[in-house]
Amino acid sequence: MSLIQWYPGHIAKAEKALKEQLKLVDVVLEVRDARIPFASHHPKIGTWTEGKSHILIFNRVDMIAESLQKDWIRWFQQRDQIVYFTDAQSGKGITALLKAAQLSGVQLNQRRHSRGMLPRPVRAVVMGFPNVGKSALINRLLKKRVAPSANRPGITRALRWIRISDQIELLDTPGILPPLLADQAAALKLAICDDIADAAYDSTLVAAAAIEMLNQQGISLESRYGVDASLGSGLEFLINLSSHQSPQLKGSENSEHIERVARQFLTDLRKGKLGAIALEHPFD
Question: Nearest-5° angle of CA 23, CA 127, CA 76?
Answer without folding.
Answer: 105
